[in-house]
Amino acid sequence: MDSTSVVDGGSAPVAAGSLWSLLQHGYQFDPQRTALIAPSQPAYHLNGLVGPAAPDEDVPLSYMSKTRRLIRLGYHKLNAMGLTDLLAPSPSSISCLSWSFAQVHRGAIRLGHILERASVKPGATILIFAASCAEWALFVWLSALNNYTLVTMEPELLTKGEETLKETIEKLAPAVIVVETLDGSAFVNAYSANNAGFRLGISIGPSAEIPQKWATMSDIASGVFPTALAKVNPIHDPDHVCMIFFTSGTSTSKSKGCKMTVREIAPTFTPPVQIPPLRRPLGIVDQYSFQGMALALLYGCWYSSNAAVLTGGSFHPSKTLASIATFRPFFHAMDPDNVDLIVNNADYTVEKVKSIKVSSLNGSVMTSEKLKRVQKAFPNARLHAKYAMTEGANLFGWPCGAPHAFELPVLQGVVSSGYPLSDVKVRILDKQGQVTPRNHAGAIHLSTALLVRGYFDNVSPDSFYQEGGDGWYITGDCGILDDDGRLYVLGRMDEVDLNQNTIIAPATIGNALMKHFDDMVVVISLKTPEGEIEMHAVFEKHPANASRANDIVGKELGAAYRLNSVTSLEELGLMHWPRTRTDKISTNEIRKLLRRRCYLSIAER
């Protein structure tokens, strides 16, 4: 057994095909199957662009034979899993937008003709300021077809007028810009008027005044299109930068653009297990459209010939619960810190979420107590605790099948993320840059072809380095590899106290408190002016008595663990948890308030 904290997940998987070929699985399986449901959009929206649900050409009978075999195979798989209820009839009547694979396929190709007429060349950049909606889904397909670089950003940025956003747009140099509305988009309009490389602007909503080189989606949909689709010739370039995702800014408060090539992202968008076609939607997409998870869910649904439900906009418990209750999806992904928002919502009942059979948990450190709360909220779901980041996903797991949630290994109160998967190497380094022994905490370094190789505009180049012929990425996270090679992620490196013989992580203390308090609690590390690391507990509603909280922490974890303060959101002047642009709890914002509360008065003396 290797005693050092280095694990190699093995040989690389077979390279996936183009993104367009992944999207065609559903279309070729059965073009009339539902691909997309958007509860916030009307049933006949853009009907002139996407056309009827049936395809324009017959599906080869040989493929239909394969289809029937797959359905039988899918039935047996679900039967073995005790999930044959997923093959029950789908929701009866849908009064909102519902597109078949044929409609999305047709709409993307027709939209491509519009861009071609505007002289938008393959490989150009499309910048979208829109929530997860049907139009956004069309551009996902179109970008895969014509090798465009797809960049999605939150529409709220347009009204802030930030100089940094203006610089980002100029550096991205998009040939196409898509906005929800032309109102309040002054510097986007200025860019489109003054940039020679700009070809077309599209407004999803109507507009009284349409600037030159701009059009609305309703105008596009009302155009005349050929009855039969011309044969498409998708471009295959595995090294093309197909997408740029911007990080949440959790670690540095600054968002970084992750440039993803087809080669890097296609395996991530391909489900690791074969999912049979279901008679209800496979997944619900309630993340922001600019998050990698949203696109991974879409591709996962479409690759397996299943439908995705787009709730639209940001995560909101009421919308999520309504979509789950109405459309009964099989899969849901969420940040475990958001489970209290769902459970405490007035619309929540166990009955409404019983259709969820699998829930992927990522976005924050997964502790055993968080896992229990999620399992209680979604009692029918099999939980998968994932270690993922904008820079890469599907890096760790359980090759022989994930254990039941309560059978997952736990260390320092943190649930294991599993083993490195194929083509993933991991090692843990101490502060001197040396590989640590097993069961010792340190910085997580990753090497895999599935990770980005650099940030947009060459930001933070020191996060990447070459060694021994491999490219490595410094995650900034603190972790431990146990004797079996399983990874445990404790939090950010600068938040964990490794200066003592005992590893003191905020997640470990928070887990101990959550055993005894129903209230949501977040433990924040704070570096003092003297360089020491303190731990402060922040409760959502009612702060515990500091003495009692420290008694619990001491009894659960030992004398080395203690809290320097216990407070609540209200005492910090907050009504809700501050959030990052991806709806994570912003520990940086809480840390600023705690620092001001604890040390400002001292500094002023």
Automatic annotation (TrEMBL):
Residues 98-456 form the AMP-dependent synthetase/ligase domain. Keywords: Ligase. One of its GO terms (molecular function) is CoA-ligase activity. Belongs to the ATP-dependent AMP-binding enzyme family. This is AMP-dependent synthetase/ligase domain-containing protein. It comes from Hirsutella minnesotensis 3608.
